[in-house]
Amino acid sequence: MQLTNFFSRLIGDISTKPFYGPAYAFIRSLLALATLSFLVFNSSEIIFYYGLNNEMTVICTGKNPLSLFCVFGVENLLWARIFSIAVLLAVISGYFPRFTGVLHWWVAFSISSSLYNVDGGDMINAIFTFFLIPFTLFDKRINHWRKAGFSLNIYQQITLFLFALAVKMQVAVIYLHAGVAKMGVQEWTNGTAVYFWFNDLDFGSAGLVDVITSRRAGLPFTVSLVTWGTMLLEVLLFSALFSSNRNFKNILFFTAVFFHLGIWAVHGLFSFALIMIACLVMYLKFYEWNALDFQTIKDKILSPRQDKKLVLDN
């Protein structure tokens, strides 16, 4: 009887969850923008060239023949790039999510599996977009930026709940692994790792950011605080999976967003920052933000401008 009541309450809770809304639209568009920035702002030499002879090449072994770059072929990589950009622009615009969902995953999967110059963010993107496919297939709207005026049956709701839970668990494990793995590295445990990362020849800071960080990196207290604070934040982010405290999650969310924006500023990892922010929205804000109305958000954004206009007119 108790087990039956538990499942009844669980299904009742699932049936009230908002699976479509601003968070869903923001996540899809942010993931697409991250990949788009990689394809648009990098030259073909950076994206496709690899090896001692610096030849244009892609990986097409194993499962990778499914990659769109392998389907188009090495001789047509420009067209594959153009096709990918078109798909990503369509995703950002929000139109036809039922069709762009699978194509979005195909682009993300192809980049993570067939190109050499990728990072962990691209692999996370490929996994994330795969888990979003059921959301896009059940989405009956023409545009994901519009209000969801349709209903889902209980089987669809359970499916989306499980896929959302899978993504959240994946994000939690990513942060747990990042935090725990650092504990086995001497530079992280003794509080000096950030100094070496700030001054790394390949990934270190540059320009004005370098001027700022180089001064801060010379202060032992600052270096240790940022180094140990990073590990603490990552472990706390994992713990959020088991927390129902909204204030705790809010603090973690905005701290983690600032953290990833800082990584972008220091190390130049723009697409990685966008991907991780999308992960954070799914992990900590998905149902809360989906419950918001698009028109309400629009009114809040425009209301300060309208008030300012009224003051100027008067």
Word description of this protein:
There is one protein chain. The protein is mainly alpha-helical. It has 16 helices and two strands. A two-stranded antiparallel sheet has the order 1-2. Helix 7 packs parallel to helix 15. The longest helix has 29 residues. The chain is globular, with a radius of gyration of 22 Å.
Which secondary-structure class do the elements indicate?
Answer: mainly alpha
Q: Helices and strands, in N-to-C order?
A: HHHEEHHHHHHHHHHHHH
Radius of gyration: 22 Å
Q: Beta-sheet strand percentage?
A: under 5%
Map the helices and strands.
Blueprint: H1 2-15, H2 22-40, H3 44-48, E1 49-50, E2 55-56, H4 68-72, H5 77-93, H6 97-114, H7 120-131, H8 133-137, H9 154-182, H10 186-189, H11 193-198, H12 207-217, H13 220-239, H14 246-267, H15 270-290, H16 294-313
Antiparallel strand pairs: 1-2
Which key phrases capture this entry?
single chain; 314 residues; mainly alpha; two-stranded antiparallel ribbon; 16 helices; 2 strands; globular
Short description:
This protein has 314 residues and is mostly helical. It is built from 16 helices and 2 strands.
